[in-house]
Amino acid sequence: MAETGFARFQGKVALVTGGASGMGREASVRLAREGAAVAVVGLPDDPRGAETVQLITAGGGDAIYVGADVSREADCDAAAQAAVDAFGRIDLCLAAAGILHARYITGDPAEHDLTPGTREGHVINKPIEYWEKVLSVNLTGVMLTNRAVARRMIAQGEGGAIVNISSGAAKIPMPGSAEYSVSKAGVWMLTRCIALELAPHNIRVNTVAPGVIDTPMALGLSQDEQRRAAFERIVPLGRLGEAEDIAEASLFLLSDHAGYITGQILHPDGGLFTG
Ligand SMILES: NC(=O)c1ccc[n+]([C@@H]2O[C@H](COP(=O)([O-])OP(=O)(O)OC[C@H]3O[C@@H](n4cnc5c(N)ncnc54)[C@H](O)[C@@H]3O)[C@@H](O)[C@H]2O)c1
Description:
Blueprint: E1 13-17, H1 22-33, E2 37-42, H2 47-58, E3 63-67, H3 73-87, E4 92-95, H4 128-156, E5 160-165, H5 178-198, E6 203-208, H6 219-222, H7 225-234, H8 243-254, E7 265-266
Parallel strand pairs: 1-2, 1-4, 2-3, 4-5, 5-6, 6-7
Helix pairs in contact: 1-2, 1-8, 3-4, 4-5
The chain binds nicotinamide-adenine-dinucleotide (NAD).
């Protein structure tokens, strides 16, 4: 039977990419609050990673920060190994690392270079290295993360659960951001393929595909009062999502409460993609 109350992850070890900020940080804190030891994975030298660990340890939880670029296979392997070295095993994985565009670092709207002189970054104008950068982090990075943790879960022989963060952009085309939409659609199909491959090992793999969430990635929208108000009018539930909305959806899918769910996509989006 699934655990009840607020200790769904007692004795479990989680690896969370994108854990230095936004929804990855929120999920890391909540996983730890419910008993998991957490390997918080983020870019090397990102000072926000230590803050996530501090939030967890201040609450009595157990966490380490592991610097890794998820687009590099050796980094993903080293991160998974670091979790095993620190905590003995890996049971859970949330792959939340991602970038909105090739120059994305912290979400500062000034980072969003739409390739001046072109029509807003349309595919026909886009530098190929911009396309490759987004695909390498958002899609290849999720694949590399999934297999690094899955290899260790298989060796442990006790199953596991993985959640990959996709986006509503997986289903809704975004002109000017084709590489982002394509990467997130890829995460959705990757999840379904890997879910079937890992099912014999009792490792469940699901996707959470958020709407627009008030994290660093949405700063361009959330900090512009007019854009924010206009957006809130078109969301059926009347607000931007919060990191906790995505963390809770992810924790459900990681928990034994979702023990018969694999290969699925869940849209915490306030109803945005319903109609
Ligand atoms: N905020 C939204 O509206 C929204 C909507 C749908 C999907 N998403 C997705 O949610 C996920 C989390 O984003 P967020 O909204 O919390 O924003 P965020 O910027 O706070 O989180 C993204 C994290 O990924 C890390 N990262 C970037 N490149 C990396 C790399 N190569 N290796 C390791 N880590 C790397 C960043 O440093 C950051 O900590 C992303 O995959 C994003 O695409 C966000």
